[in-house]
Amino acid sequence: MIVPLLSQFAECFSRPGFIHFQRFVLAYMGLMGMPHCVSEVQRLMGSYKQQHWTTAYSFLSHGSFSCQALSQKLLEMLLRLVGMPEELVIAVDDTLVKKVGKDFFGLGYYPDPTDKNPGAKKRKVLGHCWVVLALLVERGGRWFGFPLAALLFVPLMACPKEWEFMSKVALAAFLIQRFSWPAKRLIVLVDNLYAKGKLAFDLGLSQQVVMVSRLRSNAALYELPKPPKKAKRGRPRLRGEKLSARQLYRRRSQHQQLKVTIYGKTLTLKAFVGTLMPSRTLGSQPIQVIIFPQRSGKLNIFFSTDLSMSPERILELYAARFKIEDIFDEVKTTGGFADCRQRSFPALKRHATLTLLAHSLLRLLSITLPNAQAIETVPWWQPKGPPSVTRLRRAVLKSLNISAGLPFYRKPAKIRAENIAA
Questions:
Q1: pTM of the predicted model, to two decimals?
Q2: What is the pLDDT of residue 88?
Q3: Which residues of the chain are under the pLDDT cut of 50?
Q4: Residue in 293, 15, 309 with CA at minimum distance from that of residue 301
Q5: How far apart are CA 261 and CA 10, in angstroms?
Q6: Which residues, including other chains, have CB under 8 Å from residue 104's CB and lie 6 or more apart?
Q7: What is the model's pLDDT at position 337?
Q8: Mapped to the 3 state alphabet, what secondary structure does 338-396 carry?
């Protein structure tokens, strides 16, 4: 099942490089609980018995293949096998990868969102920050995420002299621009930190680009400018009266009752729906805004740059953005996204691309296979429904003739005094 999928990437490599590519992707799929490093790839695949052990390291650091070509090929294959929708939905976000060691390229100090201890906001950890783009596909009322590409954010203090500094928003825009999107309409889902004009209106793509995101509860919103009663000199106004979200929500005449399906549940809520002007950081074009309160009383503000999109569709699309957070959780815990031990930037980028590609192929198999029984070799285990990504990883392990009871690098037991005396 996996080898025919991998064969479609043969044109992106030379003949020896394609052999390395297959070994790395298969190993990244099957290494459950083990570090996804080059040494473990060689141990699992047995490639050190056929070639010198340094060739696998050279494949990542000095290989001639292009990560952009791999990502584009992955996108085309996914759309061909899953189906070409009328509009493509993508999500962009960044994730932190902790690193310990010297001479890693692009290291910086970032706040750890997973740290829930007191004072966590003031502490920062050393690591890499990756901006990731993922394709989201809806099948049977459920959303599935396929990571396509990642770019490393390098802090300004860590940039070499020949390295051009790019912000996270600029990296996100560059990620979207480098793809050739076959659909006529592209919907970009981002959180409020990426809700900037560079992504909303300045992408410069030939297709129509729509952004769906949210704003802070204290974000500045403006009414549409009113036409002047008399002709005046100078440039016409772009924005009308400045209003807060609380003032807008008090306008009961603009409330609508919305029935949306989010996270498998159907909810009914009353929300303010209107067309407003955003702050200057988001651009100078009107947006459609939805405002409703949380249980704590804090207001939620969601928006879309497409004024004709229904409010229910806006909320359901933004809820689907959470799939990229699920991708981060899976690729960092079992996918080996954070396990690269090489220091150079090419090796780090190619390792990240191959781990994302391996996860996307497993997710593709999980939604295209009819049931999980087709991949289980044990007769007494008959799971129902399509296989999960974890089950597929276990099946790859079995197909590679590796026992499920691999050592997981447990800490060595403490040496007791009686053992020394004996």
A1: 0.88
A2: 93
A3: 402-422
A4: 293
A5: 41
A6: 128, 343, 348
A7: 93
A8: CCCCCCCHHHHHHHHHHHHHHHHHHHHHHHHCCCHHHCCCCCCCCCCCCCCHHHHHHHH
